[in-house]
């Protein structure tokens, strides 16, 4: 409960405490588990009077006050198949991949989904809108960095939300330290009491992901963003647009993980989406 109130306070303070705000939520991941966390934030903001626009693949079943939707084409997986000749991998097929294989798979999948999502008619209409504006952008931090082009489009600060415990590079967005000596990478199975060889492996994996992201993944995202955010010839790189991130929220709680340093603008909000229990019928 305290985490929920803290998140709401931080978000409302970020946009302005004295007035309602126009907020854009960008949640392109086709996974209900991800949306449960993201929607908890934007629905609460809408309930508090803010004007919220949400881009996602999952339409609401009923109308919500102050809440507008831009829903992706339902045939996303068929489009993915048309381009790649295969469907996106399911979570069970990822279990046998090592950390580096998993990252290359996620980088490739993220780039392909970005290519498809930014072609969407509703998204293109938003990109080329002339009279639309937003005070804050909330984006899911999960391999869809191309959507940071909206930070440039609307000149708005960004809050990034991670539906799991977060990664090293998400901490980099807000300058959060991540000592390899006792903070295990989320893509390894180490504890905080690593042997020397485990610390060495943890360092190699962490630096591989940072370097791979910088020199392999981000350039692909840059190319996709510049292709579809074509209202301007001066779109900054994703690396530069990431600096507009004012706050990172991660679906984690300190009681469920190892001790690690956290900057004030990297906030753990584990359980924020959990609703109060309802009484069972007799």
From TrEMBL:
Bilayer-spanning residue ranges: none
InterPro entries for the chain: UDP-glycosyltransferase (IPR050271), UDP_glucos_trans (IPR002213)
Keyword Glycosyltransferase: yes
Keywords: Glycosyltransferase, Signal, Transferase
Gene3D superfamilies named among the record's database cross-references: Glycogen Phosphorylase B (3.40.50.2000)
Signal sequence range: 1-20
Source domain of life: Eukaryota
Entry annotated with the keyword Transferase: yes
GO molecular function, a single term: UDP-glycosyltransferase activity
SUPFAM superfamilies tied to this protein: UDP-Glycosyltransferase/glycogen phosphorylase
Homology family: Belongs to the UDP-glycosyltransferase family.
Record-linked PANTHER family: EG:EG0003.4 PROTEIN-RELATED
This protein's name: Uncharacterized protein
């Amino acid at each position: 409960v305290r985490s929920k109130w803290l998140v709401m306070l931080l978000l409302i303070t970020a946009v302005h405490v004295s007035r309602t705000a126009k907020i854009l939520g960008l949640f392109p991941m086709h996974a209900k588990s991800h949306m449960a966390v993201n929607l908890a934030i934007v629905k609460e903001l809408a309930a508090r009077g803010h004007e919220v626009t949400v881009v996602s693949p999952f339409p609401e079943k009923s109308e919500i006050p102050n809440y507008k939707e831009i829903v992706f084409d339902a045939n996303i997986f068929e489009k993915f198949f048309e381009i790649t000749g295969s469907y996106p991998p399911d979570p069970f097929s990822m279990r046998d991949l090592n950390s580096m294989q998993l990252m290359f798979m996620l980088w490739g999948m993220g780039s392909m989904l970005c290519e498809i999502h930014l072609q969407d008619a509703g998204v293109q209409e938003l990109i080329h809108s002339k009279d639309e504006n937003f005070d804050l952008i909330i984006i899911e931090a999960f391999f869809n960095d191309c959507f940071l082009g909206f930070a440039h489009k609307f000149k708005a600060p960004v809050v990034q939300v991670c539906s799991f415990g977060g990664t090293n590079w998400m901490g980099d967005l807000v300058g959060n330290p991540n000592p390899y000596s006792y903070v295990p990478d989320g893509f390894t199975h180490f504890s905080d009491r690593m042997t020397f060889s485990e610390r060495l492996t943890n360092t190699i994996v962490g630096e591989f992901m940072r370097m791979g992201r910088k020199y392999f993944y981000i350039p692909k995202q840059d190319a996709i963003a510049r292709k579809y955010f074509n209202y301007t010839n001066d779109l900054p790189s994703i690396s530069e647009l990431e600096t507009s991130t004012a706050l990172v929220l991660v679906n984690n709680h300190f009681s469920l993980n190892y001790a690690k340093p956290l900057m004030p603008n990297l906030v753990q909000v584990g359980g924020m989406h959990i609703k109060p229990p309802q009484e069972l019928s007799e």
